[in-house]
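Input.
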Amino acid sequence: QVKLAESGGGLVQAGDSLRLSCSASGGTFSSYAMGWFRQAPGKEREFVASISRRDSSTYYVDSVKGRFTTYRDNAKNTVYLQMNSLKPQDTAVYYCAAKATIYYYMSFHRRDEYDYWGQGTQVTVSS
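Output.
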């Protein structure tokens, strides 16, 4: 069973950048496709980005395309979400998630596809 821990959140101004990290332990990290989700107050948790076991396949929600980039370092058991040009509407708790899969180049974007979740990290963007 893999355990996930997010870090890197904080309070920033609109236009700033943040890099979130998600460290995995207790499993074979390279066996998991990874995803990022976020949940704003009063809203459902929504998909943000995903990356395949081998980081050649990524997928983003339209609202973050061109601003966010996800990548992974399997040697460090860590996946990252680089967030640039942040907007107030990006304010949310950000979660990473892991899905065990045999496919190297497939990424997943449905919440119910993921097996494990981190506790989340708060990102607040002020205008």
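The two ends are 40 Å apart (CA to CA).
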